[in-house]
Amino acid sequence: MTRRTALEPLTGLVVDRDAERRARPELFDELLADPATRLLPLWRGKALTTTAEGERALDLITPDRQTAALLRVYLGRTVASGIPVIAVTLTDAAAVELEPDQSRWVGLREAGADLGEVDYALFVEAVAIANWHESHTHCPRCGTPTVVEQGGWVRRCFVDGKEVFPRTDPAIIVRVLDDADRILLGSNAMWENNRWSILAGFVEPGEPFEAAVIREVHEEAGVVCTRPRYLGSQPWPFPASVMIGFEARAVAQGEVPTRPDGQEILAVRWFTRDELWAERDDLKLPMSASIAHAIIAEWYGGPLSEAPRQGRIAP
Ligand SMILES: [Zn+2]
C-alpha cells in the first residue's frame, strides 16, 4: 500500500474526476449498469471501512447493493484500475439496512492516516462534496430549493436558472522560521493544554495567499514575516477547507519578540529541534495525517518520533 505524506500530494493523480462525463443525461443509469462501478456509501460523514492484517481500506459496494440514496455524486474513475466510483449519502435507515458484517462506519479524521492514497482521495472528495450539498440546498438569489445536476457537481434553481457550483474555502498554514532556524508554534485557545502547531488562518476575499500568510502571522503572533514560499496543499473538508502550506521568514534578526493575539492564539513560542525533542512528552503536536505535521517534520529533518539528526545545516 502506498502511504501518503501531505507534502507530496501530486506525485500523480490517483482519481480522474472524469468531468466531461458529468453532463451525460443518462450518467447514473450507465454507471449503475457497469459491473465495474463501485459505490462509496456515506452516512453522517462516515464511510464503511474494513481492516485486514492491520491495513485499512474503504469497503466499496457493488451497484446491486444500492439502497435509497439522499444524494449521488459521480467521483470519477480510479486512475490505476479505471473503476468508476459514485458517492451515495444514506439515511439512518438505509445505513442500518446496509449493516456491515466485517466493516465499520469510520470518519475521515479517524481513518485518514491508515488509508492508501486512492481510498483517501476518494473519501476526501466524497466528504467535501457531500458537505457542500448539505449546506447549499437553496438558491442564494431567490431562496428556492435547488436541484442537483451534472453528476452531483452543480445545483440549479429552476426559477431564475442560477447555477450554483461547489465552493472550497482556502486557508493558509505557515512554517515561520527565525534566523537561527527555529520554528514558530502557537497554541490555540480551542485546543487542549500544551497542544502546539504552526499558524493558520482563512484567506480573506480579494487577498493573495502570500498576503494572507503575512497578515495571519502578524495578527496571531505579532511577528512580521516575509518571502512566503509555497510548500504544498491538503484538502481539509471539515467542513470545506483546503490548507495551503507555506514557509516564511521572520524579518527581525536575533530574538524576535512574539505577541499572541490572546483571542484565538493564547501562546506563541520559538522552538529549536532539540527543544521539540527534549519536551516531547509534554508537547502535543498535529496528527500525522495532517499537512501541519508534514510541514513541521520536513523542517525537523525526519520523523518527530526520533531524535533530531545532528550537523544539519540551516537552509
Ligand atoms: Zn433562484
From TrEMBL:
EC number per UniProt: 3.6.1.22
Co-factor requirement: Mg(2+); Zn(2+)
One of the GO biological process terms: NADP+ catabolic process
Domain Nudix hydrolase, first and last residues per copy: 166-293
Top EC category: hydrolase
Protein keywords: Hydrolase, Magnesium, Metal-binding, NAD
SUPFAM superfamilies named among the record's database cross-references: Nudix (SSF55811)
Pfam families noted in UniProt: NUDIX, NUDIX-like, Zn_ribbon_NUD
Gene Ontology, cellular component aspect: cytosol
GO molecular function terms listed in the Swiss-Prot or TrEMBL record: metal ion binding; NADH pyrophosphatase activity; RNA NAD-cap (NMN-forming) hydrolase activity
Catalytic reaction annotation: a 5'-end NAD(+)-phospho-ribonucleoside in mRNA + H2O = a 5'-end phospho-adenosine-phospho-ribonucleoside in mRNA + beta-nicotinamide D-ribonucleotide + 2 H(+)
Highest taxon in the source lineage: Bacteria
Gene3D superfamilies noted in UniProt: 3.90.79.20, Nucleoside Triphosphate Pyrophosphohydrolase
PANTHER family: NAD-CAPPED RNA HYDROLASE NUDT12, NUDIX HYDROLASE, NUDC SUBFAMILY
UniProt family annotation: Belongs to the Nudix hydrolase family. NudC subfamily.
Protein name: NAD(+) diphosphatase
